[in-house]
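Notes on consecutive records. When two proteins share a document, each keeps its own sequence and its own token line. Never mix them. Below: protein one.
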Amino acid sequence: MSETTRSLASRPWSVLRSWDAAVLVGLALVVLVGAAAVDGVGTPRFWRFVILEIIPIALIALPMTLVIITGEIDLSVASVLGLTCTVFGQLWASGVTSLPILVLVCLLLGAVLGAVNGLFVTGFGLPSLAVTIGTLALYRGLASVVLGNRAVADYPPEWTSGAIRAIPRTTVPWAVLVLGALAVVFGVVLHATPIGRGVYAMGNNADAARFSGVAVRRTKFWIFVVTGTMSALAGVFWTLRFASARADTGLGLELAVVAAVLLGGVSIFGGRGGLVGVIAAVGLLATLRNTLQLASVPANTLTVITGSLLIVSVVGPNVAGLIRVRLRRRRSISAPPPSAAG
């Protein structure tokens, strides 16, 4: 295992690199400029809506970070979320009135859907991009089969209000505590365990990782399972937050998730990145989106901005890396040669 891989995986704060700092600075600038230029930005009500938007995206972005660091990708996450919502709604409409049972069924469904992706990628050796494009369409189609054009929206008020209830004496939804706990778990696994070191190693060189004793196929399989499960959890939260289940729920959300992960400094080629930058990028995108919405920016423009940030997130770190390499070369060329001993 390379020194870089060992450093990234074993020291949590080593992921706070220049790109992560740039994302944090960008978030601060959006908040400051938005608060000065747009009425309502920075208020408790504004932050409540930002956090509610962050929660489902961050829930999926946490495992997606591991997926992309291994050199794979999962584009089916929004379809898993949508299918979970429709199953939740259909079960409720069919007479299942126990929330714990509904949540458990949805999480198991998400795990199965993630396992299907993992089986095709690790068992049959198919490229994850092709597999998850296929399951993106398949799972979304199944969601349409489950509910068709119907919407289920008659959930108990205690369920829907409970999902977005604020922490006492604040406007912050309590669900952010669940997100925070999960972020800590993922952070510890990625940056402080042999599993995390294996994730970085297989992203840098899967063959070398395999020869080093990393169970590459098994690890990737379970990462896809976890990704499906977390997408289902996001689907449950989404259903209760909006008090509605439809087949088109979360349509296009995978773009926001991938944009956040890549903007957070995770390399699309694998082997590099961390959760600090990803969480900051999720906050940046959600804050920017809500600020622009308050400024009455059209939805199409928001999509263009998200796509542009996705391109910047892919190109930016590579350009920054090239600049650093050239600067080092110039310094080494301009530095005086060491004097001869004696």
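Protein two starts on the next line and is unrelated to protein one.
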Amino acid sequence: MRGRWLDRFATWETFLALLTCAVVLYAVVELPNFATLFNLSQATAGVSERALIVLPMVLLIIAREIDLSVASILALSSVVFGAAVAQGVPLVAAMVLALAAGVLCGAFNGLLVTRFSLPSLVVTLGTLAMFRGLGYVILGPDSVNNFPESFSDFGVDTVGETPIPWTIVPFLVLAPVFAIILQMSTVGRRIYAIGGNPSAALYSGVRINRIRFMLFVTSGLVCALAGIVFTARLANARADNAVGVELDVITTALLGGVSVFGGRGTLTGVLWALVLIATVRNILGLEEIGGDAQGTIIGLLLIATLIASNAAQRLFAALNVRQAPTDSGDRSSGDPPSTMSPMQQTNG
């Protein structure tokens, strides 16, 4: 019974949930301005782009790939959208052009990885600079700030009388879709299989390169959508938008329990990590702590939680080993005692 309780509750997602609730409770008690509807709405809006981009990033990392060019795709799509609007292109057509730019960027990354067997880390490190450079070619150091009123309203308004900003709505729509694909579909099982053992997945008939290519295309498309959201929220399209966002996204994924070696991770943990990081950043902002210091603190948070995760895995493994000989149910079934920690079981 004790082992079953540990299996159910001693998970990384549970730890993140408890940590997030503790941080939120501290902020509510100690910071009078934290729990106001205005602050919560602004904090939610501020995480809109990162929340979108982390969705395909999780799938890529689980499949043993990575995309370092996500922020550059966001910036390039923003530039394409802004330049099109500045030339008098209708709003919807400009959005289509921006989304198409994102798809082409993702397809270019996927083509280099799948057809030429190049490491995604190296490929996207190169395209990180290339895509942002294309943004400078199109728009130079200038920016586009004049957009139709309906688009600008989308960037600042909330849904009806609620404090929910419109900019978070695309994430709220896509998150359940990605969760269903990853956790409940054949495609999701194949993504885990690719990340767990690519050779075994290939011999099992999984079309590895096709799935990898589509993951990069999906990443490009979602990053382009994030570029449109970013442009609406700041009413600004320029080539240096979202510099460094890729590091925040990867940090969120790893903090959420996604294994950098692939094959493990859930969106539930990543969503808790997203809320935790957004809350910490908001608290630091209310305490008037600058962006550079915020980055340092978030980095320390990641390191501390990973160390805690490793320590907890060893502890729970030891507890399982100690209680296994006295578990009559396990002995009667003939199954060997498990030495895998609950966190490893959950992520697997």
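For the record: Confidence is low (pLDDT under 50) at residues 326-348.
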